[in-house]
Write a structure and sequence with these properties.
Layout lengths: L1 H22 L4 H12 L12 H18 L3 H6 L1 H25 L4 H11 L4 H4 L8 H30 L6 H31 L4 H21 L4 H15 L6 H36 L5 H23 L2 H8 L3 H5 L7 H6 L5 H8 L14 H16 L5 H8 L6 H19 L1 H8 L3 H19 L7 H29 L5 H18 L1 H5 L1
Helix pairs in contact: 1-2, 2-12, 3-10, 3-11, 3-12, 3-17, 5-6, 5-8, 5-13, 6-8, 6-17, 6-18, 8-9, 8-11, 9-10, 9-11, 10-11, 10-12, 12-18, 13-18, 17-18, 20-22, 23-24
Length: 525
């Protein structure tokens, strides 16, 4: 019954924290962390602990796949240098700085590097909360950094754990080979699984079966990479980016209506559950601390948090100027951003799922049979750093206002371009297509009228005073109200037993499609 109790508790926490976050300016992640800490005080519920392999094999592939599907590959290519530097050099620099700080506070070098590697990568899921407030370029760079840096961090982590346990020998060639295998093998595994998924889905015409294929894809990519000791994280990310480019040509509307809401809901639940798990793990680590005093562990936590945040701020305000000295191309100058605007990227260095999974996976014993040194301290400090870095979400709205980010209308402009271009293509093809299908003139006139109306609306100004927009708003409101009346009449027929529930669901599905069509603007927002 413990699992069922946790499912109910998690569901209640998600609803309650979401409602509170809408009412008060508090990030839902902070509230969910608090729920996890409170759950840890209940002796019965604190037994609910997920094995670290579950976090790595269940949570991460699903969350990273969704993030890679919903990011912009074009923006990643345009900012590739920034993404590569932050996901490699910055990760190693952060791990080294944390290791030095932890060693200075009394931790052995092996465990110190394990701690540094676990805390080096940022969290991709936490960046998603910023998407509504930031320009597309900023969000994409933050997401891409979080998606790619896990591969570098996990290589460093594996080396640190292996050397400490006694399984690895640290040499330059060995480190180089592990990095090549991690990145090259991960990219290759992701592309192979992506190609297979693409070919299989292209031969499907059943939305349910295709949805199952979509569900399996990220886990297959992760497992294939893991089987060759490559980066499962990079495999999932590469697979997701590849799928996002090729499937729009083969995936039908019915499949998208089935799959996209499922992934949006599932990833929201999974990411929220992770925040609860972080709070629960923090409380458990605090309770199980034995190798040092609580005071000393808290000092390490605060110092390491300051180092993690400080290294990111130092990187943000040094490397851009070095790049400017080395690259003076006009195209590069156009992409420069001011010091004030970089405060957002510096503040958005959240830690999360990968850090938690890494420290929970630290072995309890060395090859000699002795306990892994300072393991309980590593777990406690990591949980504490995750909590403290997530607290940066509290001042983040103020930081965004301080940054005075320029208005980003590129998404709106490109959306208007896409709508106008596609409508023009449809209008030009009416006569030829109607002749090929043998459609009569009355039907052609009706379709032409509908397309012309949509074209005028797409070309109209977005201001509330535009008569075309006002007419469309009134038309939409009336249509939605009449759909609601049709639904009420449908229920009356069912209640009077004049139609069966099967018929009700069939007609209701058609009404739902019409309602979604009329409400598409609101849903997009």
């Amino acid at each position: 019954m413990l699992g069922l109790e946790m499912v109910v508790l998690l569901g209640v926490a998600l609803v309650a924290c979401g409602a509170l976050a809408r009412r008060y300016p508090i990030a839902p992640a902070i509230l969910l962390l608090l729920v996890g800490v409170l759950v840890g005080f209940a002796p019965h519920l604190r037994e609910a602990q997920l094995p670290p392999e579950v976090v790595l094999l269940l949570f991460l592939p699903a969350l990273l796949y969704w993030e890679s599907l919903t990011t912009s590959l074009r923006e990643i290519r345009n900012n590739l240098r920034v993404v590569v530097l932050t996901s490699t050099v910055l990760v190693v620099a952060t791990a080294a700085a944390v290791a030095c700080a932890a060693h200075a506070l009394g931790m052995h070098w092996g465990p110190a590097w394990v701690l540094g590697a676990a805390l080096a990568p940022t969290d991709a899921t936490a960046v998603g909360v910023l998407a509504r407030d930031l320009p597309r370029r900023t969000v994409t760079v933050l997401r891409a950094e979080s998606l790619v840096n896990d591969g570098t961090a996990l290589v460093v982590y594996g080396l640190a754990v292996g050397v400490t346990v006694g399984e690895e020998q640290l040499t330059g060639w060995h480190v180089t080979w592990l990095l090549v295998l991690s990145y090259g093998g991960g990219v290759l595994a992701g592309i192979v699984v992506g190609l297979i998924s693409w070919q299989v889905r292209g031969r499907m015409d059943d939305p349910i079966l295709e949805g199952i294929a979509v569900l399996v894809t990220p886990f297959a990519a992760f497992l294939l990479a893991d089987a060759i000791d490559a980066s499962g994280v990079l495999a999932v990310v590469c697979c997701g980016l590849f799928i996002s480019q090729v499937t729009p040509r083969i995936t039908g509307a019915a499949t998208r209506q089935l799959v996209l809401p499922f992934w949006a809901l599932s990833t929201t639940v999974l990411s929220s559950a992770l925040f609860v798990l972080v709070g629960l793990s923090a409380q458990s680590a605090f309770r199980d601390l034995t190798s040092t005093s609580v005071r000393h562990a808290l000092v390490i936590t605060v110092v390491v948090t300051a180092v993690v945040i400080g290294v990111r701020w130092l990187w943000t305000y040094t490397t851009p100027y070095v790049i400017r000295l080395l690259d003076r191309r006009p195209a590069q100058r156009l992409r420069r951003i001011g010091a004030r605007q970089r405060t957002v990227s510096a503040t958005a260095g959240f830690r999360g799922a990968v850090s938690l999974a890494a420290v929970l996976a630290v072995p309890h014993k060395l090859d000699s049979g002795a306990p892994f040194p300072d393991r309980d301290v590593i777990v406690l400090v990591t949980c504490g750093v995750i909590v403290l870095t997530l607290l940066q979400a509290v001042p983040l709205p103020a930081v965004v206002r301080f940054a005075r980010l320029p208005a980003d209308n590129s998404v709106l402009e490109e959306t208007q371009l896409a709508e106008s271009y596609t409508l023009d293509a449809a209008i030009e093809a009416i006569d030829v297509t109607a002749a090929e299908l043998g459609v009569g003139e009355p039907v052609v006139d009706r379709v032409r009228h509908d397309l012309d109306k949509q074209r005028k609306l797409a070309a109209a100004a977005s201001g509330a005073g535009d008569p075309v927009v006002q007419h469309d708003d009134q038309y939409t409101s009336l249509s939605l109200a009449l759909i609601a009346r049709r639904r009420e009449a449908l229920l009356e027929l069912r209640d009077e037993q004049r139609i069966d529930d099967i018929v009700l669901r069939r007609v209701q599905a058609r009404l739902d499609i019409e309602e979604v069509r009329f409400s598409r603007a609101g849903l997009a927002e």
